[in-house]
Write a structure and sequence with these properties.
The protein has 506 residues and is an alpha/beta fold. It has helices spanning 2-21, 23-41, 46-50, 59-65, 71-82, 115-136, 168-175, 188-191, 196-207, 219-233, 256-265, 380-394, 429-443, 445-451, 469-476, 494-503; strands spanning 96-100, 109-113, 146-149, 154-157, 160-166, 184-185, 212-217, 247-250, 272-279, 282-286, 295-297, 303-309, 331-338, 345-356, 359-366, 397-406, 415-424, 461-464. The protein is built from 16 helices and 18 strands. Helix 10 runs parallel beside helix 11, helix 12 (380-394) crosses helix 13 (429-443) and helix 15 crosses helix 16. The termini are far apart.
């Protein structure tokens, strides 16, 4: 009976594999079809009339007609939609708004979610993740138990109580097919709690005796929950509590800094980790090969993709490319048009394609989250790989980190300053810093050039953060749980100065 449930699920999902297989040879055709669908659907909206969607016949028309957008460009229209106005960016009634504060912004973004985008982007993404996982793991028995899904919270938008604003995960849980509730924990009531500390305890108490086979959520917050469960039971391995656990579907933040921590508490060889790229703006990709960290770009959802070469992001009229025009191993800022009414919207993430047949990619960072104080162009991908090497060679485990430049100290020296909270201390902090610095040189030729002979950049400075510093910093900002994340790299010293001040308070 146990196996039959997963077999039934596999049979239901299998036809979808044939559609995904078309990605390999028909990517551009599929994307052009998506664009036509979006344009036709929105032709009578306020935006459709403003930009005369009726006369847009092809991608070139679209590219030349509509400007690239950021949140600031559409903020006024979104505020009108929250106030109850309709048919502005998208024709169907929009009641849900995903609250996204990103990594560092003190000002929240409110991203519209139409019924079409929920169905044809977000839920479709969730289904495809399972579909592709079952294909990758023929031995899977994930439906023999339940999935622990970690989400945020939402609340009515006062004074517009008919609208709901909250974390994307909470909105998805609120609108999910009731049948899915049969195979997930915790209950909807617990899943949507807004007070994080109480929520953790409720999740622990309600799931610890369940047969959990799969996990879904942000790696940093899931780790907090798992450690609390181990503490409650006095165990060191998660499989001692959930012996049938086999997969963690994760996204939201890079998994690299957390991988070794998960390896420490989940030691079963049958455990798998599947990365997904799911944001408030849309569901964009998932792994389709457990041996390849790159994710498959999901091209037949209600999302039309464009790409701006990273070096052009700050230009007034940047070069913008369709999927058929991109090159491998180049950094691009992601631009999307969706059935939520986001048109040529730059979401702030950067990706790099590793394959074009089909299109597969890795996330390399954020358009605003890098250090380029001295021309070094250090991106998050560099940081994650450098830290992984330093951890491996010193036996360390990194819990959280943030880095920023020191523009000039009293001795006129410039450097990068790293604030790192260790789960397990390295055998030597100085050695860790030296290996990290060397690894960054190897990974980034611009950083290497600026570090040459210590003329422009001195060796990096490593400050050890006290236990729980980053948790306390997020708590102080009211950003515990959900999709909230620590700023990794920044040209500004604003965040690291706040953290350093808090670090001095033991």
């Amino acid at each position: 009976m146990v196996m039959s449930i997963t077999k039934i699920a596999r049979a239901i999902f299998n036809p979808r594999i044939k559609e995904i297989d078309l990605y390999t040879n028909y990517a551009d055709d599929i994307q052009q079809k998506v664009l036509r669908k979006l344009i036709v659907s929105a032709k009578n909206t306020e935006w459709g009339q403003k930009y005369d969607f009726r006369s847009i016949h092809n991608y070139e028309d679209f590219r030349s007609r509509l400007p690239i957008q950021t949140y600031d460009d559409i903020k006024g229209d979104v505020e009108r939609m929250i106030a109850g106005e309709q048919n502005i960016l998208w024709p169907s009634t929009i009641r849900f708004f995903a609250k996204s504060s990103g990594t560092t912004s003190d000002k929240s973004k409110f991203l519209p979610l139409s019924k079409e985008s929920l169905k044809n982007i977000h839920y479709k993404g969730g289904q495809d993740v399972v579909t592709l996982y079952l294909k990758m793991n023929p031995q899977s028995k994930m439906f023999s138990g339940k999935g622990l899904i970690l989400g945020g919270s939402h609340a009515p938008s006062q004074p517009f109580a008919n609208n709901l604003i909250g974390d994307l995960s909470a909105i998805l849980i609120e609108n999910i097919n009731p049948l899915v509730n049969l195979v997930r924990v915790p209950s909807k009531k617990i899943a949507l709690m807004d007070e994080w500390e109480s929520k953790i305890e409720a999740i622990v108490n309600s799931t610890i005796n369940q047969n959990v086979t799969n996990l879904s959520g942000v790696p940093s917050w899931m780790l907090v929950v798992l450690k609390r469960i181990l503490e409650e039971r006095g165990k060191t391995k998660v499989e001692d509590i959930w012996p049938n656990l086999e997969v963690f579907f994760h996204g939201g933040v890079a998994f690299t800094p957390y991988r070794e921590q998960y390896n420490q508490i989940i030691k079963t060889p049958k455990m798998h980790y599947v990365e997904t790229y799911n944001a408030s703006e849309g569901f964009f990709g998932t792994q389709n090969d457990l041996s390849d960290p790159a994710m498959l770009l999901m091209i037949d959802y209600d999302i039309f993709y464009e790409f701006i070469p990273l070096e052009e992001v700050e230009e007034e009229n940047p070069k913008v490319l369709s999927i058929s025009e991109v090159e491998l191993n180049k950094n691009y800022a992601l631009v999307i048009s969706t059935s939520s009414g986001l048109w040529r919207y730059m979401i702030g993430d950067t990706i790099k394609f590793t394959s074009s047949n089909p299109y597969k990619f890795i996330i390399t960072g954020r358009t605003k989250h890098f250090i380029n104080a001295f021309g070094e162009e250090l991106i998050i991908d560099n940081a994650e790989n450098g830290l992984a090497k330093a951890c491996k060679e010193t036996g360390a485990l990194v819990a959280e980190y943030s880095a920023a430049p020191v523009y000039m100290d009293e001795n006129a020296k410039c450097r990068h300053q790293w604030l790192i909270e260790f789960e397990k201390m390295p055998d030597s902090v100085d050695k860790f810093a030296m290996i990290l610095d060397q690894a960054l040189k190897e990974l980034n030729s611009d950083y290497e050039a600026k570090r040459s002979k210590d003329i422009a950049l001195q060796p990096l400075e490593l400050i050890v953060a006290r236990k729980g510093l980053f948790y306390d910093w997020l708590a102080k900002k009211g950003k515990l749980g959900g999709q909230h994340k620590v700023p990794r790299l920044s040209n500004s010293r604003k965040y690291i100065e706040e953290m350093l001040k808090l670090n001095s308070k033991q």
